[in-house]
Design goal:
By secondary structure, this protein is mainly alpha-helical. The chain has helices spanning 3-9, 26-42, 47-53, 59-66, 75-94, 98-104, 117-121, 126-141. The longest helix is centred in the middle third of the chain and has 20 residues, at 75-94.
């Protein structure tokens, strides 16, 4: 078979439609939310802390989410979920002991001005969560 013939029979790699790279489907967002709610339990967060980290949904919406009734999520919430899961992933890479990884978010940290990661994230802006994730990613990158 010639090179041209081999190329003609090779499948063409599929690419995501233009403008969709990085988008999250509703199904993926629901899975992310379920994972983050489980993570919050591991972090032993109070209900109000959880709501702040999720972008301040109403108590009724939050109750529905916890009951598994999850409709389309706002983009802000999806971005927050991505960063929270990124934080979890980084901590699990950094600590072999799961309890240390889960407890890290509440321990004071010099690099965060003596505040805990949770204190920083609870300031409420999505950038506060991103700041903690960026710190952890930088720490992991040095390895």
């Amino acid at each position: 078979m010639t090179v041209a013939g081999a190329m003609a029979s090779a499948p063409i790699p599929r690419q995501a439609p233009a403008g969709t790279q990085g988008t999250v489907t509703d199904e993926e967002a629901r899975a992310m939310l379920r994972a983050v709610l489980n993570l919050f339990a591991k972090w032993t967060l109070r209900r109000e802390e959880q709501r702040v980290l999720l972008g301040g949904p109403s108590d009724r919406t939050f109750q529905r989410w916890r009951a598994g009734e999850i409709g389309p999520l706002p983009n802000d919430t999806v971005f927050r979920l991505g960063d929270l899961l990124g934080i979890h992933k980084a901590l699990r890479y950094m600590f072999t002991d799961a309890d240390r990884a889960y407890g890290w978010v509440k321990r004071p940290n010099e690099a965060l001005g003596g505040k805990s990661a949770l204190d920083v994230m609870l300031q409420g802006a999505p950038s506060d969560i991103s700041r903690v994730r960026a710190y952890l990613d930088a720490e992991r990158g040095a390895w």
